[in-house]
Amino acid sequence: MENIDYLKKQLSIMINLFETKRFNELINKGIVLKKKFPDQAIFYNLIALAYNATDRGTDAKKILVEILKKQPKNITVLNNLGLASIQCGDSEEAERYYNRALNLKPDFPSALINLGNLKTNQHKSEEAKECFLKALKIDNELIPAKISLAGYYEQLGKFEESKKLYKEIIKIDPNYTLADKSLSLIHRYNLGDDHIKTMEEKLAKNIDEDGAQKLNFALGKAYEDIGDYEKSFKFYETGNKLYKKNIVYDAKIDVEYFEKIKDFFKNNNINPLNDYGQKMIFVVGMPRSGTTLTEQILSSHKDVYGAGELSFLKDAIQKKLLSENGELNLNTEDLDKEILKEIKDYYLERIKIYKNEKIYLTDKAPLNFKWIGFIMAIFPNSKIIHCTRDPMDICWSNYKNTFTSKSMNYTYDFKDLANFYKTYDDLMKFWIKKFDKNIFNMVYENLIINKELEIKKILKFCELAWDDNCLNFHKNKRSVSTASLAQIRQPLYNSSVQKWKSFSKDLMVLKKQLNN
Description:
about 5% strand, about 60% helix, single chain, 5 strands, globular, five-stranded parallel beta sheet
């Protein structure tokens, strides 16, 4: 009895550490407890979830495999091994773990939802939908299943179905503010909108910090819609300050990182691999520069498959070239043909999940601009489209959105934003000078002014014949998961050009920092 009470107390402490995001404390405490209670899977699971939350998927897998040897039919361990495998970039292994759990318990909601999310990322929309609906048959008020199903509809441009689900979630749990935030992004607000009132009422109550972050961004979007830019900015500013409190970002690290890449390629010529494998189009640039729009146009072409934002290139490069302390190892000995081939093979193996039979496949991870030197060595027959836009519009759009990736931690502060933009711009100027014939600059404003002419230029650069479908990109039914998913379902409009000027009074600090 004493042991049970002790276990309950320790478990309560660990859950509290997880909920308050004190992950390192949880890991240290959990390691001690699992030694004391080596058969208590709950400790292994919590440690693994904390490892996952701190981008240590490999450590999470190790500790879960340890308990799985003792408890091979533990469905929670199998499910968490799926999550850890996703963290490690291995979706095929994750799928095997989820299916093992579901073979043992077909009505296991967590595994169904996680498998559905994996299928969504693989563009297997109908399989994803089936998983979410199965989970909802088990429990019709299961919020994780509803939020995933809403995201599925959203990515396909079925916004009315998404809105309905988000409203159902808010009714079930008014404090589940992710639903408010998600709803705000696909809803057009008018003066007196009931949702604005309910969000302000929630914010006025003693809501937790995470909820306050999301509501501030949602209200910023709402007041921007109705044209109250002063109020909108205050909400965006508060939301960013709340996010900034809980993240770690040092601009010097990015500056040094980019300089290291630039210096290496300035002083070394890397012999490219022989052309083989899938023909690629890499769409790169600052986030919110038009990368999603560009991919949507290209993927409307009969010979192009739009794979979306892929992490595979970053994963492969970091797996092969990052030291244990996170330093980028760049020297000609390390970057030999064997390493380049391993990176390419890793990438090509991962994209097999899309079963693409078209001539080109697009990868539109914007931050791949860092890796252009590597792309030209690994995929010398690829096309690189660099999306550019007014720097103020880019930075403002970054500031008023939130991102799950830690690589976007520079977006919550004007100074960080300006520093990152200038560092990116410097690296891109270097790449363009070095690989001028291999990079096409897609200027967002030019596309808005003369859509047909700019699309013809893009297709010519990609050696693609004209396809009328590219003009009607907004009718493309493919799944899109980025912050631009609502905009690309509409024809081109010019209201997004110099949109920052509506907030110019509050953005002079940003403008000054960009110009310094």
